[in-house]
Amino acid sequence: MDTKDREILEILEKDAKIPLAKIALMIALDEEDVKSRVENLEKKEIILQYKTIIDWEKTDEEKVYAFIEVRVIPKKNTGFDAIAKRIYNFPEVHSMYLMAGDYDFAVVVEGKSMKELAYFVAEKLSPLPHIQSTGTHFLLKKYKLDGKIIEEETMDKRLAMTL
């Protein structure tokens, strides 16, 4: 990948709505060249999707997220991939990662309530073959998401304690 493609990717990663004409000015290319490069990056599936970051806390939509650490016994001949596919195909699964450490997978799940996510873990995830153990951590507050600060630091409104 050449430098110009890398620059285009870095710009689009920060703001997918930026006009191609502005990108062209930023990296000293013709707008048609930028358009062609972006189309090529999409065709090669280097650019997979354009995404909007939404602060759901500011809407009336209830969303609950949990991070689930999953320890598995890998399947013979297929390793982790077959187990991962079984897990990531559940509609509750938002993201999934293979990782090194005490657990094999980090799974981010989304639901409408803690009860719904607890049901997912107890009734769908844990009973799967090759699942050895899970650890669930519910998300309480987001500070930064995909490089975007969600909530700037605010002044502490509590009264100071004096002795």
From TrEMBL:
<dbReference type="InterPro" id="IPR019887">
    <property type="entry name" value="Tscrpt_reg_AsnC/Lrp_C"/>
</dbReference>
<dbReference type="InterPro" id="IPR036390">
    <property type="entry name" value="WH_DNA-bd_sf"/>
</dbReference>
<keyword id="KW-0805">Transcription regulation</keyword>
<dbReference type="InterPro" id="IPR000485">
    <property type="entry name" value="AsnC-type_HTH_dom"/>
</dbReference>
<feature type="domain" description="HTH asnC-type">
    <location>
        <begin position="1"/>
        <end position="81"/>
    </location>
</feature>
<dbReference type="Pfam" id="PF01037">
    <property type="entry name" value="AsnC_trans_reg"/>
</dbReference>
<dbReference type="Pfam" id="PF13404">
    <property type="entry name" value="HTH_AsnC-type"/>
</dbReference>
<dbReference type="InterPro" id="IPR019888">
    <property type="entry name" value="Tscrpt_reg_AsnC-like"/>
</dbReference>
<protein>
    <submittedName>
        <fullName>AsnC family transcriptional regulator</fullName>
    </submittedName>
</protein>
<dbReference type="GO" id="GO:0043565">
    <property type="term" value="F:sequence-specific DNA binding"/>
</dbReference>
<dbReference type="InterPro" id="IPR036388">
    <property type="entry name" value="WH-like_DNA-bd_sf"/>
</dbReference>
<dbReference type="InterPro" id="IPR050684">
    <property type="entry name" value="HTH-Siroheme_Decarb"/>
</dbReference>
<keyword id="KW-0238">DNA-binding</keyword>
<dbReference type="InterPro" id="IPR011008">
    <property type="entry name" value="Dimeric_a/b-barrel"/>
</dbReference>
<keyword id="KW-0804">Transcription</keyword>
